[in-house]
């Protein structure tokens, strides 16, 4: 009798061990259904096998006009970062180590060229070309020779320097709405090559913005064609392409850089010219102190007004939600007023 009891207990114990082993090796149970028959949310471990969202193309631009053109073409398909902060005059700006890293980490680097960004050659030398595509927006555009101010005591040396280095080119092509369209197209081409999956979006965005630039060009043609005067005096030689496009004559107080100080002889020539042409408005710009323009205006008994080279947005521009198109429309209104006095 005791033997039979021991056998029964042994069989019962063996059965319990087998059952326990089976439970420990079974697949984990799914989460219980939530109210309404929906399954409970997955845990972080459950979603770890899902593919990550695609990383957007990163575009780094040198200064404001290139930023605005790139932003218009990119739309929401790429992230656009501008290097030069708002309110900073870009002619003599130099990038920091952090700025250089931003360029190196970008998928596309967009700059104007034609000597506008004096630091660009150094930046390009350090780039990994297989990683970052480069857009020189002025490439292929016929450039004008620029106006550089010379010191009277160094007149001959200045001529020798210009001869040895070649003519100084005017980089301010974005102020001509027709040439701005070419810069937009160069940016569009680069984005389509770098991100072919969004090619149609880039083309659609570029076409829409170019249509706005075409309307701007028409507004300038219509608004300036019947102007009483054709000459205007401005603080620095930024408006040569615009003047050429619409049959005007720019008379700059300084050369291509707004920081240049004109010689007394140069100032005298400008004052005499302005008197002969009955110029009653002297234009200055937003990112540079207007001292020289005010000096000329005082000598003439003229007033001053803003003609914006759009090299960077000021806080006031941002507060008014102004962009490239809006500022160009303001420039047109300023020119119409001055040329019809």
From TrEMBL:
Listed Low complexity bias regions: 29-45
Matches recorded under CDD domains: AdcA (cd01017)
Keyword Flavoprotein annotated: no
InterPro entries listed in its UniProt record: AdhesinB, Bact_metal-bind_prot9, Lipoprotein_PsaA-like, ZnuA-like
Leader sequence residues: 1-20
Keyword annotations: Signal, Transport
One Pfam family from the record: ZnuA
UniProt keyword annotation of Nucleotidyltransferase present: no
Region (Disordered), start-end ranges: 29-48, 146-165
Family membership noted in the UniProt record: Belongs to the bacterial solute-binding protein 9 family.
Protein name as it appears in the record: High-affinity zinc uptake system binding-protein ZnuA
Protein source organism: Paenibacillus konkukensis
């Amino acid at each position: 009798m005791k033997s039979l009891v021991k056998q029964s207990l042994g069989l019962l114990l063996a059965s319990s061990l087998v059952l326990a082993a089976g439970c420990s090796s079974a697949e984990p149970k799914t989460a219980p259904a939530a109210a309404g028959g929906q399954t409970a949310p997955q845990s972080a471990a459950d979603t770890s096998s899902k593919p990550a969202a695609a990383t957007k193309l990163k575009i780094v631009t040198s200064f404001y006009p290139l930023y605005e053109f790139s932003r218009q073409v990119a739309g929401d398909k790429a992230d656009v970062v501008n290097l030069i902060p708002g309110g900073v005059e870009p002619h003599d700006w130099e990038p920091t180590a952090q700025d250089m890293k931003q360029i190196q980490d970008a998928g596309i680097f967009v700059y104007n060229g034609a000597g506008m960004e004096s630091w660009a050659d150094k930046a390009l030398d350090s780039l990994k070309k297989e990683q970052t595509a480069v857009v020189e927006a002025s490439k292929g555009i016929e450039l004008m020779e620029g106006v550089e101010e010379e010191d009277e005591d160094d007149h001959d040396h200045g001529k020798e320097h210009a001869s040895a280095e070649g003519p100084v080119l005017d980089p301010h092509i974005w102020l001509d709405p027709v040439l701005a369209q070419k810069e937009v197209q160069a940016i569009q081409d680069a984005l389509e090559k770098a991100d072919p999956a969004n090619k149609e979006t880039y083309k659609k965005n570029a076409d829409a913005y170019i249509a706005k630039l075409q309307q701007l060009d028409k507004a300038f043609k219509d608004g300036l064609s019947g102007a009483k005067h054709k000459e205007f005096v401005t603080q620095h030689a930024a408006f040569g392409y615009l003047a050429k496009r619409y049959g005007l004559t720019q008379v700059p107080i300084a050369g291509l850089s707004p920081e240049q100080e004109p010689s007394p002889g140069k100032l005298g020539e400008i004052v005499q010219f302005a008197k002969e042409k009955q110029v009653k408005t002297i234009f200055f710009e937003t990112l540079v102190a207007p001292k020289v323009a005010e000096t000329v205006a005082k000598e003439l008994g003229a007033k001053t007004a803003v003609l914006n080279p759009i090299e960077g947005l000021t806080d006031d521009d941002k507060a008014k939600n102004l962009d490239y198109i809006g500022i160009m429309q303001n420039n047109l209104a300023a020119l119409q007023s001055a040329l019809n006095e």
